[in-house]
Every structure is written in structure tokens, then in C-alpha cells.
Write a structure and sequence with these properties.
Helix 1 runs antiparallel to helix 4. 68% of the residues lie in helices and 0% in strands. It has one domain: Four Helix Bundle (Hemerythrin (Met), subunit A). The two termini are 25 Å apart. It is elongated and about 45 Å long. The chain is mainly alpha-helical. The longest helix is centred in the middle third of the chain and has 28 residues. The chain binds fe (ii) ion. The site of fe (ii) ion has 6 residues, from helix 3 and helix 4.
Length: 142
């Protein structure tokens, strides 16, 4: 895992490396794209971007996460994996959070602050490293 903790500017960025590889190239590539969206959100919030730009990025995060979760769940279903249920639960929690975030930012009751960026970053790190990794063996050598 390579979190650029030393650079103040990038202290909340996500950098994909092999330790995040879940064994399925399509899912790895989607995780990379998700990290890019997360880093765009971080960059925009730190440069005090307009609310519309933040909302656009939050919507991108929602849309791309939805696509990614759907593909990931379809692959697990194809493998008839019992891990699917936990994945669906986690994915729903994440999407609910993003919907709520979008509504709050839109209403002006919050901005994308450090606590929110940290929550999102930790969610992805932990989800990939602890939950997604459980299915890695289904795709490696298969
Ligand atoms: Fe997942």
C-alpha cells in the first residue's frame, strides 16, 4: 500500500499499487479509476472548488462505484461465491453514504472536508484490502 502520507498536499490521496490487486484485471482497473475520482475530489475540495464541481465529482464517484459494484457482484455470482452477500451489504452502505453526502453538499449543510475525505479513503482501503481480498483466490489461477 502506498499512501503518500509525507506530502502535505497529497496526504489524503490514494495511490494504487500491487498490494491492492484483487486478482481480476477488470476489477483492478476499476479500482484504479475509482482512486482517480477520489483524488479529483480531494484536489477539488482542497482548492476550494465551486460547489457544482464538487457535486459533479461526487456524482462521478456514485456512478462509477455503481458500475464497479455491479461488475464485481456479477463476477462473484458467476463463481457462485458465498462472499457475494457481504459485498452487496457493504456496497449498499457505501452508495447510501455517497447519496447522503451529495444531498448535504447540495444543500450547503456540509462541504467536502477532511473528515469526509478520510472516511472515503479509509473505506476504499479497508474494503479492498479486507473484503475484496477474500475473493482474490477465486480469480488467481482460475
Ligand atoms: Fe467490493
Amino acid at each position: 500500500m502506498n499512501i503518500e502520507a509525507n506530502s502535505n498536499k497529497n496526504k489524503l490521496s490514494l495511490v494504487w499499487d500491487q498490494s491492492f490487486s484483487v486478482g481480476a484485471p477488470i476489477l483492478d482497473s476499476q479500482h484504479k479509476s475509482l482512486f482517480e475520482i477520489m483524488n479529483r475530489l480531494q484536489g477539488a475540495s482542497e482548492s476550494d472548488a465551486e460547489k457544482d464541481l464538487l457535486l459533479n465529482i461526487i456524482n462521478d464517484l456514485y456512478d462509477y462505484s455503481t458500475t464497479h459494484f455491479r461488475d464485481e457482484e456479477a463476477l462473484l455470482k458467476k463463481k457462485q461465491s458465498p462472499l457475494l452477500v457481504e459485498q452487496q451489504t457493504q456496497h449498499a452502505i457505501f452508495l447510501d453514504y455517497v447519496i447522503e453526502l451529495e444531498a448535504k453538499v447540495r444543500a450547503g449543510s456540509t462541504t467536502v472536508n477532511e473528515a469526509i475525505l478520510t472516511f472515503l479513503r479509509v473505506w476504499w482501503e479497508e474494503h479492498i484490502l479486507k473484503i475484496d481480498m477474500q475473493y482474490q483466490k477465486l480469480f488467481i489461477n482460475n
